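Incident review: delayed structure delivery

Summary: a single-chain prediction request sat in the queue longer than the usual turnaround. Root cause was a stuck worker, restarted by the on-call engineer. No data loss occurred. The affected request and its eventual output are reproduced below so the record is complete for anyone auditing the incident later.

Affected input:
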Amino acid sequence: MRICELRQKEVINIRDCQRIGFVVDVEFDPCTGQICQLIIPGQGKWGGLFGRDTEYTIGWKCVRQIGTDIVLVDVCMDEIVHPCDE
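Output delivered after worker restart:
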């Protein structure tokens, strides 16, 4: 699978069946080439017109299954929310 294919998939948390969003970026280890984290944008300010306050970073070890349309993850939502670095 290519990273561009992963970006088209919606991420869903299997703990509470909550939609988290779509993958926009990945973080990988430059030495091994393995994916470390999925990065998903958080809620937008004022309908997305003024950027975002937060983003979700999900460790690769939390990914449970990758399907044709979705990525299933098992995470605690409080642990994956981080402020944006804008």
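Verification: Residues 3-6 form the longest helix (4 residues).
Action items: add queue-age alerting; document worker restart procedure.
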